[in-house]
Specification:
- The radius of gyration is 19 Å and the shape is globular.
- Helix 1 runs antiparallel to helix 10, helix 2 packs antiparallel against helix 10 and helix 9 packs across helix 10.
- It starts with a helix and ends in a 10-residue tail after the last helix.
- The protein has about 300 residues and is mainly alpha-helical.
- The protein has one domain.
- InterPro entries: AA-Vitamin_Transporters, EamA_dom, EmrE-like.
Amino acid sequence: MIKTRSIAAGHLAAVFSILIWGTTFVSTKVLLEDFSAYEILFFRFILCYIALFLAHPHFIKTKNLKEEILFLAAGFSGVTMYFLLQTVALTYTLSSNVGIIVSVAPFFTAVLAHFFLKGEPLRPQVFFGFIVAMAGITLIIFNGSFILKLNPKGDILAVLACLFWAVYSILMRKVSELDYNNTDCTRRVFFYGTLFLIPALMFSDFHLGLVRFSKPANVLNLLFLGLGASALCFVIWNWSISVLGAAKTSIYIYLIPVINILVSYLILHEKLTGTSLIGTLLTLAGLSLSEINVRKKPNVEKVNI
């Protein structure tokens, strides 16, 4: 009975994380009206770090330089570059486009896992799923460039964000084997992610601009991104993986573009076209085909968002 309840709680926790992550693109899009991409990330990371420290005020004492490099590289790839590329992409394209494209990250992770981790073979189903997913992404980019007259730069940046997330996932798989506290590991990664963001801030028009915080919408969205989407969801997602396993938990990732498109339509009033809907279906279909191959394996790649 206790085990059954734990499994049910794991599913609920995963769904909760996905519901939050599926709306972050919209929240960021709203903040971009008063904040630059760099400013949003800086305030988000700082809030996340403070929240995680208050939740578990302990520091990791790494055993050697190799372990420290793992945290450093994970922070650079999964926090600095992934979020930076994702946020900047939102300045060029629709939030629904970004939400769909970044959902391809699990596939790129599977490809890198095959080459850098043991026991991760690539089977024909994975490649077939990739082709279908890429067809969907192509339709999304085509839709943005020629129907809505948008700059495809944002869509390309979103794809690059996927690649950095794949690298991050491989690194976090190795970090999880170090057997440190999950909250502490997440905080360490965000520390390096914030540290690497500072040079970019120096070459941007970053400023505190306290007047912007007088708007309730700005404060609420920053708190949502920093405390909810970053601090809380990262910890909850990792807990779900420990209960359900990476395979079952990762299935929920593919709900993100669906949630994002609905929220974008309802809140931002972004137009839904036939091309974008077909592209969405193809992308989700391709990812589902890839998931069939993953679910057959007892040990799969740990994916975080």
